[in-house]
């Protein structure tokens, strides 16, 4: 359609949302579909956070706020950054957006010009490359591998940097793999970045509290203080606090960048929901006691998924350090055929056939830039996860 923007032709709809929508459609038609495609905790938002939202409504805190957040939330974010990472920020260095996605988008829109490159390790969260394209930049995709536990090496990062590189997007623990970088692994990357002062770091820490076993989360500016002035540390309350629908994300970074992001937001959505902001104040300042019990449930679910998927011939499923995803390889299943005659030539073929023939919704690896794999979100009940993995086992066993 000639009327539409040419920019729009460079991007695609979110595959994770598309798979979730397809699963919902089949459920509405009466199918017993188990959805493992959405990155959304099945836990309810903690009661103290909900109470704070109700209190905000009762107090009439339902008007416009400053475009990028109320002072109380900005201060809570500063306190959190100091408490968790030893990083000092002032409220003027903080931007609050309508979810983590908008915060990242604002930063890219505020900084990218034609020809600017953004290094993105693959597999990546599906929105990173498309947001770069919408902002006029060029995504530079660097593939990791199963052998490297889906982690970028210092050598790969060094090789990807050019004079046109503006940003390096970093995500740990990762969506879609759950891979978490140790302090030593992250230090190797920051050492490279210290040699290239024109490269800025956009770190997506959304899954920081979802860290398991002996893995200890750390963020780039914490590991290398020399990067503080060119790092945008992004986060939100969606995942750890089970607040996906509240839509609050935030970022901390240099004042000039935050000011530019505010300008973008002031001409798009303006302020995030006022009530959600007050709920987020309580999330960050209030009790954190629910995090450990929730993580115990996630670890149990992770182990169920890894164990059951690893038992399938042709599937290799590494154990992730965090988040609530596993990213198995199906290299051993490519070239096979389903009982209904569907050829499995790609991981997208696999995902579509699994949904249509076994009523399990996953997301195919190509959506995240690395095949042949698929992503399972284990942020669901033990019972649903176990049944879904049984269906995946049976489906794979039926392939010839």
UniProtKB/TrEMBL annotation:
The keyword Transferase applies. It catalyses: L-aspartate + 2-oxoglutarate = oxaloacetate + L-glutamate. Its EC number is 2.6.1.-. PROSITE patterns: AA_TRANSFER_CLASS_1. Its cofactor is pyridoxal 5'-phosphate. One of its GO terms (molecular function) is L-aspartate:2-oxoglutarate aminotransferase activity. InterPro entries: Aminotransferase_I/II_large, AspAT/PAT-like, NHTrfase_class1_PyrdxlP-BS, PyrdxlP-dep_Trfase, PyrdxlP-dep_Trfase_major, PyrdxlP-dep_Trfase_small. GO terms for biological process: amino acid metabolic process. Residues 32-392 form the Aminotransferase class I/classII large domain. Pfam families: Aminotran_1_2 (PF00155). Keywords: Aminotransferase, Pyridoxal phosphate, Transferase. It is an enzyme of class 2 (transferase). Homodimer. Belongs to the class-I pyridoxal-phosphate-dependent aminotransferase family. This is Aminotransferase. It comes from Roseovarius albus. The lineage of its organism: Bacteria, Pseudomonadati, Pseudomonadota, Alphaproteobacteria, Rhodobacterales.
């Amino acid at each position: 359609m000639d009327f539409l923007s040419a920019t729009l032709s460079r991007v695609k709809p979110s595959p994770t949302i598309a798979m979730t929508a397809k699963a919902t459609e089949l459920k509405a038609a009466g199918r017993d579909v188990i959805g493992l495609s959405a990155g959304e905790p099945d836990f309810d938002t903690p009661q103290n956070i909900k109470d704070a939202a109700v209190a905000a409504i009762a107090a009439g805190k339902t008007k416009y706020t400053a475009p990028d957040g109320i002072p109380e939330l900005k201060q809570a974010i500063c306190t959190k950054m100091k408490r968790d990472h030893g990083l000092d920020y002032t409220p003027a260095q903080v931007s609050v957006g309508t979810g983590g996605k908008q915060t990242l988008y604002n930063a890219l829109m505020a900084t990218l010009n034609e020809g600017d490159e953004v290094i993105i390790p693959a597999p990546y969260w599906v929105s990173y490359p498309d947001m770069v394209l919408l902002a006029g930049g060029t995504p530079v995709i660097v593939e990791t591998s199963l052998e490297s536990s889906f982690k970028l090496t210092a050598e790969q990062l060094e090789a990807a940097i050019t004079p046109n590189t503006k940003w390096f997007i970093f995500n740990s623990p990762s969506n879609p793999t759950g891979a978490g970088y140790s302090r030593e692994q992250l230090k190797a990357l920051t050492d490279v970045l210290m040699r290239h002062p024109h490269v800025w770091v956009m770190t997506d820490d959304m899954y920081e509290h979802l860290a398991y076993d002996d893995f200890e989360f750390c963020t780039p500016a914490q590991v290398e203080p020399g990067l503080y002035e060119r790092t945008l540390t992004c986060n939100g309350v969606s995942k750890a606090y089970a607040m996906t629908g509240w839509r609050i994300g935030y970022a901390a970074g240099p004042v000039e960048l935050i000011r530019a992001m505010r300008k973008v937001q002031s001409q798009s959505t303006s302020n995030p929901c006022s009530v959600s902001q007050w709920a987020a104040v309580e999330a960050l300042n209030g009790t954190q006691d629910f995090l450990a019990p929730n993580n115990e449930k996630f670890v149990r679910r992770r182990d169920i998924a890894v164990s059951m998927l690893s038992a399938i011939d042709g599937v290799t499923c590494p154990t992730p350090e965090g988040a609530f995803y596993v990213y198995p390889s199906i290299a051993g299943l490519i070239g096979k055929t389903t009982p209904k005659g569907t050829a499995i030539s790609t991981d997208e073929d696999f995902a579509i056939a699994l949904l249509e023939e076994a009523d399990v919704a996953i997301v195919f690896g190509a959506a995240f830039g690395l095949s042949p794999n698929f992503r399972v979100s284990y942020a669901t009940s033990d019972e649903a996860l176990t049944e879904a993995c049984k269906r995946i086992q049976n489906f794979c066993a039926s392939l010839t």
